[in-house]
Amino acid sequence: MAVPMSIGSLLLSELIEDPLYKDEGLCVLGIFGKSAMQPGSAKESLINTLADKHVFPLFGPDEPDCPGGGSFIQAYYNQESRVLYLVLTSVCDNRQLLRACETLGAGIGHSEAHDFWKGAEKQHCLQLLYLFSLCHVLLLVHPTCSFDVTYDRLFRALDALRQKALPLLRAAIKDSPVSKEWKVNCRPCPPRLLFVFQMNGALRVSGGTSGTGLGGNGTDALGGDKPKKHSPRRRLQHALEDQIYRIFRKSRVLTNQSSNCLFTVPANQAFVYVVPGPDEDPVGALLGQLRANCALRENDTGLSVSGPRRYQQMRHAARQPSFTVENSSLSSAGGQLVDCTLKEFLWQHVELVLTKKGFDDSVGRNPQPSHFELPTYTKWAQVACRLYQVMIDSGDEETAELAAKVQGQLKVLEGFLDADAKFSENRCQKALPLAHSAYQSNLPHNYTTTVHKNQLTLALRVYSQHARGVAFQRYALQLHEDCYKFWSNGHQLCEERSLTDQHCVHKFHLLPKPGEKPEMDRNPPILFHNSRGRSTSSCNCGRKQAPREDPFDIQAANHEFYQILEEKCCAKLERTHFPVFQPSTLDPAPACDEVPQPPESGVVVVVVGGSGDGERLKEKEAVSHTPGDSTSLSLALSLGQSTDSLGPYGDGGEGQEKRPSLVDRQPSTVEYLPGMLHSGCPKGLLPKFSSWSLVKLGPAKAYNCHTGLEQPGFLPGSAFLLPWDVVIRCRAEEEAGLSEPLDGGPSSWPAPNKALAGKRGGVGGLGRGRRRDDVARAFVGFEYEDSRGRRFLSSGPDKVVKVLGPGGAKEPATRVLNADMPLYIPSPAQGRGLKPHYAQLSRLFIVVPDAPLEITLNPQVQPGPPPCPVFHPEQTELVLPPDGLWVLRFPYSYVTDRGPCYPPKENQPLASYRVLKGILRANTASTPPQ
């Protein structure tokens, strides 16, 4: 074989051997270790020296098929010397180390990089075990002249891996044509390990230094000391041999019986060689090598001898005497031994193999001889191919299972090679209980996701204070999983929040289906939501109070509670029925989310009647969107088609009737609004129930301004409505063109220091023919109610009605009508706790006098800061007829399609929660609204 090749290519190729050497045995020499970056210092250059040929290039072999950081074995078979060289290149070589660093790009975490390096190290150990299973002699090359003690840990790991993988290797070579001892021990013999160290600058001295200072071959500067018998390099080799032998004996890598060891070292032969540094005179060194080669040629007898005798003659002719005394003046003074060459150092061990003597390296009182076999190349190649398929490349289906099992045995190496990971494992395992204790500290039995995340953050902080190393991330994930399992195993609280922003107190559960009863024993249990919050609320009219549970849905908050109380109190009262969804199919569906549209002013409302009068249109008047009275509008129009298809009625010109616009279309009968009606809802949809209520308690005289409202729950002196004096102007002939809306604004009141026209004694009075009921007195009251059922009326955005004597409230209602009233105000009856109690606007009382007067009701509520929408009833611009005591009940909770509008917290401003001004407007009955 003229050129080196990979071990896989060598085993797959058919090597044509010389018939002269075909039946002779061969010595397998494995070379591994570390190499530096200097030219000529690689392990491959040693083979050039041993074979006297330029086999490998100066800068090492180029292996394009080997990935970055991978390990590979190259083979070179010298048939003449009957030596097969196997060279292992791995990440221990700086050339492959640079390739591995290039493979690891940016962004690789510490744990991933650690796994990459340890994976490469495990594969290196497996290929190294492959060499220990096939070679007779192994050569460990190190780039410095000091022993690396990490090899002790490496060899102990290899020995443990070999013991684990030995049954698998026996199964792989059981049919090979080798001896029984080879099949049992899975190696031709216990290999002998030799060490080759590269000389660095520590022992490089000039020619004038003394011998005592590891100098050359002369005397010291004083000339008094005798020359040493051994050179400094030889003394260094002896020191390294003693050091290495003691280390391996202490760690039990070497024992008395060589057959049980991973490798052996000779007891009476040198096994350490230090390669001298480069000569300072390269020309002289080249001339010396040329002179030595010429001397070898002169000693050649030229006889044509064949067979083993020819090999013996060639081998002995190539050798030089190892220990000769220089024929100089030093020989008479005791003489200094000449250092042997690397080839001479190695060949004394190779000769023991080729002469079939074997290695007898067992020591002790009863040394046991070890097995030895010198195979031919054909037998060796068969065994090497089987082991290659099992240990390195599983290309055969028969050996795939064995190869997988061998890879599984690599876990044995973790305890020996991965000391930092073992330390990290132990450290992280000790940190986990501390983190678990931190997570479970001060925990209730059931808690929410927010509490779980906060406790998990605390646990991770404690864990990061104690955990270290590459196992940090893996055990952090385990901490995540452990805490989540603890939380989900019976400690998870229901995540549902009530409409008052309180959590359900039950653990994780399912809601009962319609007609299904709650079951506590189920896993998860079937229960209704409950926050254990109770409050006291009044009915629609306010005459009866009852406790209520904290609601979790809008129907229970704004409809079901009042329906229950209505049956006991205000079922027979006159009421205004707000329009709700009327289905036309058996399975109506909730409407899908649409793009919200802003509310429009100046609404044109269509009232379709069944009489013969046809369609009657009213502009700027609030009338109900009553559904289902006529089918003149198609379903397509009710679902929102374009008004372009309305023809000449679309523009609504003068002199012709205006067709209904999309804003005023009939509500849908197949889709309902899932929540409450507000300014962001799509047009043409109605809810299944109304969250508002408008009832009539009785005529206007049902309210006595001297006694106030006679209803339960009111604070003393706070049940008096505010007077609202509305000016009524009769349409006399001279006032035919005057007609103004009386909305409680400045235009409804006379100028200061000026009497009203038509009053007695007034300036410019109209005489006795003028009516005396020019001013009608209405009453208005904004009622607030807190969670304990305490009620009171407000006389301004920040004032509570307080009447101590007879005569009722004195403050006019104009202040509350011309300002935005707050939806929440602090309750005047605060408890002992530090948390403030808020009272919510619950009802609006309106007393309409028996006069030619109409009061229009248009409530609009903004229950939160922008962009919170404005809520309003299903029917706007409600006209209250004369002579009545009306009660408008506001919703208990406000819910949009994105969720509920929660009550304000302690640190939130109350000004954002408000009822918009303009809720009431007064008009004379004889004058059409402007």
TrEMBL record:
Sorted UniProt keywords:
Nonsense-mediated mRNA decay
Q: Which domain of life is it from?
A: Eukaryota
* Record-level GO BP terms: nuclear-transcribed mRNA catabolic process, nonsense-mediated decay
Q: Where is this region: Disordered?
A: 208-235, 644-664, 739-769
Biased amino acid composition, Gly residues: 208-218
Record flagged with keyword Cell membrane: no
| Pfam families (UniProt xref) | Smg8_Smg9
Family recorded in the similarity comment: Belongs to the SMG8 family.
Q: What does this protein do?
A: Involved in nonsense-mediated decay (NMD) of mRNAs containing premature stop codons.
Name of this chain's protein: Nonsense-mediated mRNA decay factor SMG8
Source species: Anguilla anguilla
